[in-house]
Amino acid sequence: MFNRLLVLLLILLALFIWGCPKDDDKDEPTPTPTEDIASGTANSSDSTSTVVQTPAGATVTIPPGAVPTFDDGSACTQTFSIERTNSSPADVPTGETLKSDIYRFGPEGFIFAAPVEVSIPMMDVPEGHDVLLYRTNEATGEVEQMPAVYDPTTGKITTNTYEFCCWFGTTRPAVNTASGCIMVNNLSHSKWLRVCVDTYTLTFPDQVGNMAGYGEGALWAPIGTIGWASSGKYYIPQGTYNLCLQWSHRDWLSGHTTYHHRMENNVTVNSAWNYWTSPNCSYTLSASDPVGADTGMCTCIPHPSSPAHTGQVQVTLTWFPNDQSGRDMDLHVVEPSGEEISYSHRLSATGGQLDIDNTCVWSESGIAENIYWTTNPPSGQYIVKVHFFPNACGSQGERQNFGVRTVVRGTTRTYQSSAIYGETVEICRFTVSGGAITYQPPEPITAIVNYPPKN
């Protein structure tokens, strides 16, 4: 009896101690969520900027005119997505330390009509260090340094870009070979200003690999525009540049855009920029309305891609061939009825359709294949597959990496996989039931699948 009473007293004492508030009277910290995702839409006819931001602060800002129109000039809507994807390790350059999560921005495989702004949150940045931003070039697998600015007040690093991929930030002790900057002021009240690199001579030639990202340039809004700056720093490796300045003005009633451009030659950037120790730029460029400038666009500005359609359900495949002969990858979606949409059956009874088939005939690295429903998609399970089409492009080649993005009623997911010559790979399954969306793992494909030949 005594032993039972003793055990009971010990249990009550333990419950009392466990239930008492801690000395500091603070709650336990909430664990960081494993997911950090967001999505939103922007249209080519939008007159204001669109912002998409994750709970942790990764952001994309889409200015007016960034979403290209369709080939016939009609307005296009694109779904933009951000997803933390730390499952893909970052290739951090030697001597630098990874100081951010890795974020994948979508849609991939497209070049926008104007640069969009990308920001990712940094973590534990040492004061006085250089802060750098990189993107992964999907075509080469190499990382490219981007012209970015770090703001300690927000803890974010920001850049302009014409295309999406994976992004991450690093730090390193400050060096005098770091990139410098040009202070750009757009003095126009009605025209957008873009600046890009036409020709250059680098002070440190080993930085030529960074010019892929830096040379694309950046964008500044007319004075008074809300949501996009009319002045700011353009970060670029030290050297001497001939820059092309391009002004654009859109008539929102007609939808017509006019372009003018001129050169700004012998621009010298001769000092490293650092937020803490060297906050000023070595060159200032102030550009007013383009009186006397030539008509047309700068040749150093990327040409936009033809956009893909979007809808309540959208599935997009992108890949980058490992060699110049090209690869023919095909996207297949099986809808709930069992009807399969692909290159050989491009339109289903429920309105699902393939609008882009990137074949060897006009193969372009990174251009997407896309299947979408503009009407209300049927309820039930969807199966997404990718087939490495054989006897195409004149090369069997090696294993091909690819990415698939699903957009289901505004919810995005991205998948990375690969296939060998002639192989079909199931990527994912998802079920639409009313307003609910559930995701299921893929199932292995064991049977040999024979798809129709291509013309």
Output the keywords.
455 residues; mainly beta; Lipoxygenase-1; seven-stranded antiparallel beta sheet; globular
Molecular structure report:
It is a single chain. The strands form 6 sheets. Strands 1, 4, 5, 6, 8, 9 and 12 form a 7-stranded antiparallel beta sheet that branches. This protein has helices spanning 2-19, 211-214; strands at 37-43, 50-53, 59-62, 77-84, 97-98, 103-106, 116-121, 130-136, 143-146, 149-151, 156-161, 166-172, 180-186, 192-202, 218-220, 231-236, 239-251, 256-269, 283-287, 294-295, 313-319, 329-334, 340-341, 352-356, 369-373, 380-388, 400-408, 411-419, 424-433, 436-440. With 455 residues, the chain is mainly beta. It contains 2 helices and 30 strands.
Secondary structure blueprint with pairings:
Elements: H1 2-19, E1 37-43, E2 50-53, E3 59-62, E4 77-84, E5 97-98, E6 103-106, E7 116-121, E8 130-136, E9 143-146, E10 149-151, E11 156-161, E12 166-172, E13 180-186, E14 192-202, H2 211-214, E15 218-220, E16 231-236, E17 239-251, E18 256-269, E19 283-287, E20 294-295, E21 313-319, E22 329-334, E23 340-341, E24 352-356, E25 369-373, E26 380-388, E27 400-408, E28 411-419, E29 424-433, E30 436-440
Parallel strand pairs: 13-19
Antiparallel strand pairs: 1-4, 2-3, 3-7, 4-6, 5-12, 6-12, 7-11, 8-9, 8-12, 10-11, 13-16, 14-15, 14-17, 17-18, 18-20, 21-25, 21-27, 22-23, 22-26, 24-25, 26-29, 27-28, 29-30
Question: What is this entry, summarized?
Answer:
The chain is mainly beta and 455 residues long.
Q: How many E-type strands?
A: 30
Mean pLDDT: 84
* Level-1 CATH class name of the largest domain: Mainly Beta
| CATH-level-2 architecture of the largest domain | Sandwich
What class would the helix/strand composition place it in?
A: mainly beta
Q: How many discrete domains?
A: 3
Shape: globular
Main beta sheet: 7 strands, antiparallel
Count of alpha/pi helices = 2
Helix content: under 10%
CATH structural fold name of the largest domain: Chondroitinase Ac, Chain A, domain 3
How much of the residues is beta strand, in percent? 35-45%
Quaternary organisation of the protein chains: single chain
Low-confidence stretches: 1-33
Distance between the termini: 90 Å
Radius of gyration: 26 Å
